Amino acid sequence: HRLRLAGGKSRCEGRVELEQAGRWGTVCDDGWDVADAGVVCRQLQCGWALRARHGAAFGRGAGLILRDDVGCAGHEDYLWDCPAAREHDCSHKEDAGVVCSEHQQWRLSGGRDGCAGRVEVFFRGTWSTVCDSTWYEMEASVLCHMLGCGAPLERPSFDHTLPGKMLYECTRLQPSLAHCKWTYNKSAPCHQSRAAGVICNGM
Predict the structure, then answer these.
(1) Mean pLDDT throughout 1-28?
(2) Pick from 105, 111, 194, 107: which is nearest to 157 by CA?
(3) How buried is 18 (Cβ within 10 angstroms: 0-12 exposed, 13-18 middle, 19+ buried)?
(4) What is the arithmetic mean of pLDDT over 152-166?
(5) Please, what are the domains in the chain?
(6) Read out DSSP for the chain?
(7) Are 23 and 64 in contact (CB under 8 A)?
(8) Stretch 133-155: mean pLDDT, rounded?
(9) pLDDT band at 203 (very low <50, low <70, confident <90, very high)
(10) Going by DSSP bridges, is the β-strand pair 105-110/116-123 parallel, antiparallel, or unpaired?
(11) What is the pTM of this model?
């Protein structure tokens, strides 16, 4: 057995897919709840469940539907340890999904468009700012590319006004900032920092 999330913006959110006898399939959302999602998040080392998603929220899967009426108590180590029906009356429009606490997504706010502004990251259920103490050309490049905004032109600074602070250190161009080294709410490296911003060229 193997487990993965598909169709999300990081490896810690998406449509639940599991492998059985060498074939991947989905889970039907009948009875799908936060206890079930929590087992998935923990098994994938993605923290805890923020949301259990229904109705193919991350797009429709293909192939088999391997589980229906999943009923995890929440303490199970693996999704396949949970009681579930192998027979189903579902279609892929009922594929189950999860959003886990270790999922990160980004936005730029306060700029003229979605490719400029203060960097904000959604993590562990809340929006945070990013410390500019290690916000260099490489980090800004990773974010601009990831947002489909081209390359960075400027890195303006803003005030921290959100509850959390994130720090990223990228040594090369990664597919997302979550693939770089990061720390969350560590005071020392963020001491006297301002909130990172970026203006991408939008191309």
Answers:
(1) 94
(2) 194
(3) buried
(4) 96
(5) 2-100 (3.10.250.10), 104-200 (3.10.250.10)
(6) -EEEEEESSSTTEEEEEEEETTEEEEEB-TT--HHHHHHHHHHTT--SEEEEE-SSTT----SEEEEBS----S--SSGGGS--BSS----GGGB-EEEETT--EEEEEESSSTTEEEEEEEETTEEEEEBGGG--HHHHHHHHHHTT--SEEE--EE---SSEEEEEE-SS--SSGGGSEEEES-HHHHTT--EEEEEE---
(7) yes
(8) 96
(9) low
(10) antiparallel
(11) 0.81
Q: Which amino acid belongs to residue 26?
A: T
Q: Give the pLDDT confidence of 67-121 residue by residue, as tens digits.
A: 999 999 999 999 999 999 988 989 999 999 999 999 999 999 999 899 999 999 9
CA distance 157 to 198: 8
The pair of structure tokens assigned to 23 is: 């074939």
Six token digits for residue 18: 């599991």
Contact 124, 83 (CB under 8 A): no
Q: How far apart are the C-alpha atoms of 198 and 121, rounded to whole Å?
A: 13
The answer to whether 101 touches 122, Cβ cutoff 8 Å, is no
**50-70 confidence digits (pLDDT tens):** 999 999 999 999 999 999 999
Tell whether the torsion through CA atoms of 128, 134, 137 and 141 is positive or negative. Answer: negative
Taking the C-alpha atoms of residue 143 and residue 147, their distance in angstroms, rounded to an integer, is 6
